[in-house]
C-alpha cells in the first residue's frame, strides 16, 4: 500500500524517478526487517512455554512443591477410594492430621463434602460446598473440589483436589453488618414512631388541651434528643474507625482530663446524690488525642453514674505507670468471685509502660455471660433497655475503638449485686511517643 502511494506521487509529478525508487526500496527493507523481528519474537516466546507445560523440569516441580507447602490455605489431593494422598501443612493443621495415610471421611465428617469428592473422583465437575461447625468454636468453611486426571499414570485414575477456604471472618462481618443495620433501623424507628403518634394526637383532640400539649411536647423533645444522641454516636464511631489505624501523637495529662470530666458531670451526680471522687497521681501523661480520651472518660464515668444507686459513690482512680500485666491483671478489686474479662488489648513490646484509669461503681453489676458482648454495638445488658437514663448502646463500642487507636487496653470486672470496675490503660509518653512516630 505504501509503494502504491509513492508511485501515484511519481505519476502526478510530485516526486522524481530517483526519489521514488529510493523511497520504495527503503520502505520494502523496513517492512522485511519488521516482519523478521516480529516472527522471531513470537516464535521465541511461544515455544518454551509449551515445553514447560508439557514437560516441567525438576526445578519447576520443586518450586511448585515449596509454594504448596507454604500456602496458608488447606489443600489436599484425594486419590481413589477417598484416600488422602497429599496434604499441605495448612491442611494438616486445619484438620488435625497426624499422618497423611488415611481416608478423608475419617478426618472430615461432612457428608456433602464427601459426596462431592466422590463425584469428582468419577470425573464429574462439582459445585463448591459450604458447611459450618459449632464446636469447639464456630467456623464457616467453603470446600472447593476439582477433578484431576494425571497424564503420567499408566492406568489413568481420577483424583480430586480439595481446597478448604475458611470464611468465618467474612460470615461474621456480614452478620455484624446485618445486625448493625437492623439495630440502627430499630433504634431510629422507635422514637420516630413515638413522634408520629404524638403529632397525630396534637393535631386531633389534644390540640385544645394546654396541659396535654405541654406533656406531649416534653416527651417529643426527649425522643428527638434520643435520636440526636444516636446519630452523634454513629458519626463519632464512624470517624474513629476511619482513623483507628493512625496512632495519635498528642501529650495528654489524664489527671487534669479526669478532673475536667468530673466537673462537667457534676449536675448528674447532684441529681442522684452521688459522691464522685478522684484518686490520681500528678501528673499522669500519656500520648493521645485529647478529645477522644475525654470521650472515653466521659462514657465510662457517665455509665457509672447511670447505674449507681442513689446516695452512693463512684470512684475514679488513676494508677502510676506499670507493666502491661500489672495494669491488665491486677489483684481482684471486687473479690475472687468477680467476673473479669479483657475487651481490648494492645500488642506491647518488652518494657512498655501503661497508665491505667479505673472507674468503680456500686451498681447492680453484670453477669459473666454478658461481659463478652459489652463492647458490641447496640448491646445492652438485660433489664437496662428502657427508662429515662437509656443510652444508645454505642458508648462502650466507641470506647473500645478509641482504646485500639491509642494502642491501649480495656478490661471489666463485675459482680452481680456488687458493682463493676471498668479500666482503660494507655502507653506512657516516653514509650508511646516512640511508637506513635512509627508508620
- Number of E strands: 13
Order of helices and strands: HHHEEHHHEEEHHEHHEEHEHEEHHEEH
- SSE-based structural type: alpha+beta
How many domains make up the 3D coordinates? 4
Task: Write a structural description.
The protein is α+β, with helices and mostly antiparallel strands and 439 residues long. It folds into 4 domains: 2-54, no CATH class; 70-166, Beta-Lactamase (2-Layer Sandwich), CATH 3.30.450; 171-226, Helix Hairpins, CATH 1.10.287.130; 246-436, Heat Shock Protein 90, CATH 3.30.565.10. It has helices at residues 2-11, 17-54, 58-70, 89-95, 104-107, 111-120, 168-203, 210-242, 254-264, 266-272, 290-307, 324-328, 368-371, 395-405, 429-436, and strands at 75-78, 84-87, 129-133, 139-148, 159-166, 251-253, 275-279, 285-287, 313-322, 339-344, 354-361, 409-415, 419-427. The strands form 3 sheets. The chain has a 6-stranded mixed sheet with strand order 7-9-11-13-12-10. Helix 1 (2-11) runs antiparallel to helix 2 and helix 11 runs antiparallel to helix 14. The longest helix has 38 residues, at 17-54. The chain is extended, with a radius of gyration of 35 Å. Mean pLDDT is 79; it is low at 4-12, 25-55 and 431-439.
Descriptive keywords:
alpha+beta, 6-stranded mixed beta sheet, 49% helix, single chain, Helix Hairpins, 4 domains, Beta-Lactamase, 15 helices
What does the secondary structure layout of this molecule look like, with pairings?
Layout: H1 2-11, H2 17-54, H3 58-70, E1 75-78, E2 84-87, H4 89-95, H5 104-107, H6 111-120, E3 129-133, E4 139-148, E5 159-166, H7 168-203, H8 210-242, E6 251-253, H9 254-264, H10 266-272, E7 275-279, E8 285-287, H11 290-307, E9 313-322, H12 324-328, E10 339-344, E11 354-361, H13 368-371, H14 395-405, E12 409-415, E13 419-427, H15 429-436
Parallel strand pairs: 7-9
Antiparallel strand pairs: 1-2, 1-5, 3-4, 4-5, 6-8, 9-11, 10-12, 11-13, 12-13
Helix pairs in contact: 1-2, 7-8, 8-14, 9-11, 11-14
Amino acid at each position: 500500500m505504501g509503494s502504491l502511494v509513492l508511485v501515484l506521487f511519481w505519476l502526478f509529478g510530485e516526486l522524481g524517478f530517483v526519489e521514488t525508487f529510493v523511497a520504495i526500496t527503503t520502505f520494502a527493507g523496513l517492512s522485511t526487517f519488521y516482519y523478521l523481528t516480529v516472527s522471531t519474537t513470537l516464535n521465541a516466546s511461544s515455544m518454551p512455554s509449551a515445553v514447560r507445560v508439557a514437560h516441567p523440569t525438576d526445578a519447576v516441580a520443586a518450586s511448585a512443591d515449596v509454594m504448596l507447602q507454604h500456602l496458608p490455605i488447606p489443600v489436599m489431593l484425594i486419590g481413589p477410594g477417598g484416600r488422602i494422598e497429599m496434604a499441605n501443612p495448612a491442611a494438616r493443621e486445619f484438620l488435625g492430621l497426624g499422618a497423611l495415610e488415611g481416608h478423608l471421611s475419617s478426618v472430615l465428617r461432612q457428608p456433602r463434602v464427601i459426596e462431592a469428592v466422590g463425584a469428582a473422583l468419577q470425573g464429574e465437575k462439582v459445585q463448591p460446598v459450604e458447611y459450618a461447625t459449632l464446636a469447639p468454636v464456630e467456623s464457616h468453611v467453603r470446600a472447593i473440589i476439582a477433578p484431576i486426571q494425571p497424564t503420567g499414570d499408566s492406568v489413568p485414575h481420577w483424583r480430586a483436589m480439595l481446597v478448604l477456604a475458611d470464611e468465618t471472618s467474612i460470615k461474621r462481618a456480614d452478620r455484624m453488618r446485618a445486625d448493625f443495620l437492623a439495630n440502627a433501623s430499630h433504634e431510629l424507628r422507635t422514637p420516630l414512631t413515638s413522634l408520629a403518634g404524638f403529632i397525630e394526637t396534637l393535631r386531633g383532640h389534644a390540640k385544645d388541651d394546654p396541659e396535654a400539649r405541654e406533656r406531649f411536647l416534653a416527651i417529643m423533645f426527649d425522643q428527638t434528643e434520643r435520636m440526636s444522641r444516636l446519630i452523634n454516636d454513629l458519626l463519632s464511631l464512624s470517624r474513629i474507625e476511619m482513623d483507628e489505624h493512625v496512632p495519635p501523637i498528642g501529650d495528654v495529662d489524664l489527671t487534669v482530663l479526669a478532673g475536667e470530666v468530673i466537673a462537667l458531670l457534676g449536675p448528674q451526680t447532684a441529681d442522684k446524690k452521688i459522691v464522685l471522687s478522684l484518686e490520681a497521681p500528678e501528673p499522669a501523661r500519656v500520648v493521645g488525642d485529647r478529645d477522644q480520651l475525654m470521650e472515653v472518660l466521659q462514657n465510662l464515668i457517665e455509665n457509672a453514674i447511670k447505674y449507681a444507686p442513689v446516695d452512693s459513690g463512684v470512684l475514679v482512680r488513676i494508677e502510676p505507670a506499670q507493666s502491661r500485666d500489672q495494669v491488665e491483671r491486677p489483684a481482684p478489686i471486687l473479690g475472687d468471685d468477680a467476673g473479669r474479662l479483657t475487651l481490648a488489648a494492645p500488642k506491647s513490646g518488652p518494657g512498655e509502660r501503661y497508665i491505667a484509669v479505673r472507674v468503680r461503681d456500686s451498681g447492680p453489676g453484670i453477669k459473666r455471660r454478658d461481659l463478652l458482648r459489652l463492647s458490641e454495638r447496640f448491646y445492652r445488658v438485660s433489664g437496662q433497655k428502657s427508662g429515662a437514663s437509656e443510652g444508645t448502646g454505642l458508648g462502650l463500642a466507641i470506647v473500645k475503638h478509641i482504646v485500639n487507636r491509642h494502642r491501649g487496653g480495656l478490661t471489666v470486672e463485675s459482680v452481680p449485686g456488687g458493682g463493676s470496675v471498668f479500666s482503660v490503660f494507655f502507653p506512657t509518653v516516653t514509650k508511646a511517643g516512640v511508637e506513635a512516630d512509627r508508620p
